[in-house]
Design a protein that fits this description.
This protein has 331 residues and is of the alpha+beta class. It folds into 2 domains: 179 residues, Hnrnp arginine n-methyltransferase1 (Distorted Sandwich); 134 residues, Rossmann fold (3-Layer(aba) Sandwich), CATH 3.40.50.150. It contains 7 helices and 16 strands. Strands 7, 8, 9, 10, 12, 13 and 14 form a 7-stranded antiparallel β-sheet that branches. It is elongated, with a radius of gyration of 22 Å. 37% of the residues are buried. The N terminus is likely disordered.
């Protein structure tokens, strides 16, 4: 039977709605929703990303497997120009690379020039929506690559980018990444959550009204989450094709594996770049450039006799998802 009253969840929240400490009716599942992409990637975050060498190595491995001498390559999300330069050095006949941020576009122009690749790389300061009608790209694209992967997976607009470039691709074009799968598990955040919310009266004063001002129950934590904090098995959605994406609601079940206090659901995405080469958006060790995405619920105690069922669907804007979950106790 469903026992949401045990977990005392928050009411549904979005980035534009107030955070409410009130409990829902027993029939209402826990819900978390991710909003729209937030805009250009700040320079400091981009420096963190390019310094994540393992992240770059994953893409280099995929590009070596897919780029052949003489290929025409398109990249969306130039950043500082790392992948565009690598594509040119791997033998591409020409590389078109698109960056919407004027600041990063200027940086990328300097990077291409400094690496002696100006004759092989065309930089375009535009949004991917403008590519088809711009007339800049006149040849079918043999290889398309993008690293517009956000911590939430979709929040940098990767699905919309694929839709924008699809008309420009040659038949049987090779793409990086190819697919995405969304994953989640229940977690204990004791000692961490107390830094993010008012959990108890402070010196005898109830300050929980501060929590009501929070814009979302979603938090990003840039530290590893130790194995003891994972309270359930990991659930994975079906694998979605990025080029021919079809949204569908999926239902996953997680088995609770230890008795402990539960704070919410940890969510991450896994992208397939090429055969046996994947990259995930979970922060597992110091030095990587991801963050752990955690949806909080009212703290509760869970036991190994329980299961958690999660229902997920991608939003119509393709930038996030709605995720509902309920903790169940066997009858």
């Amino acid at each position: 039977m469903t026992n949401p009253s045990q977990s005392n969840p928050h009411t549904p929240t979005t980035p534009n709605a107030p955070h409410s400490p009130a409990s829902p009716s027993p029939a209402q599942p826990l819900q978390a929703e991710r909003g729209r992409a937030t805009g250009d990637l700040p320079l400091k975050e981009h420096i963190l990303m390019v310094n994540d060498v393992s992240r770059g190595e994953k893409y280099l491995e995929a590009m070596k497997a897919k780029i052949k001498p003489g290929d025409i390559v398109l990249e969306v999300g130039t950043g500082a120009g790392l992948l565009a330069c690598l594509a040119a050095k791997l033998g591409a006949k020409h590389v078109y690379t698109v960056e919407q941020s004027p600041e990063l576009f200027r940086v990328a122009c300097k990077t291409v020039e400094q690496n002696g690749l100006a004759d092989k790389v065309t930089l375009i300061n535009a949004n991917s929506r403008e590519l088809k009608d711009s007339g800049v790209i006149k040849q079918p694209i043999d290889v398309f690559v993008t690293e517009t992967i956000g911590t939430q997976g979709l929040d940098e607009g990767i699905l919309n980018i694929f839709a924008d470039v699809k008309p420009l691709l040659a038949p049987n074009a090779r793409i990086i990444p190819e697919t995405v799968q969304f994953k989640h598990c229940l977690v204990n955040m004791s000692g961490i959550r107390e830094q993010l919310e008012v959990m108890n009266p402070i010196l005898g004063v109830d300050l929980s009204s501060l929590n009501a001002e929070l814009q979302s129950n979603n938090h990003f934590w840039m530290h590893p989450i130790e194995m003891w904090r994972e309270l359930s098995t990991t659930a994975g959605t079906p694998i979605f094709d990025l080029l021919d994406f079809e949204s569908q609601e999926s239902i996953q079940t997680m088995q609770i594996t230890r008795d402990n206090v539960c704070d919410g659901l940890l969510n991450w995405s896994e992208f397939s770049l090429s055969h046996s080469n994947t990259i995930e958006t979970r922060y597992r060790h110091f030095g990587n450039s991801w963050a752990n995405s955690i949806y909080f619920m009212d703290r509760c105690f869970v036991t190994r006799a329980q299961t958690c069922t999660a229902t997920m669907r991608v939003n119509d804007d393709r930038l996030g998802w709605v995720l509902n979950w309920t903790i169940k106790t066997p009858e």
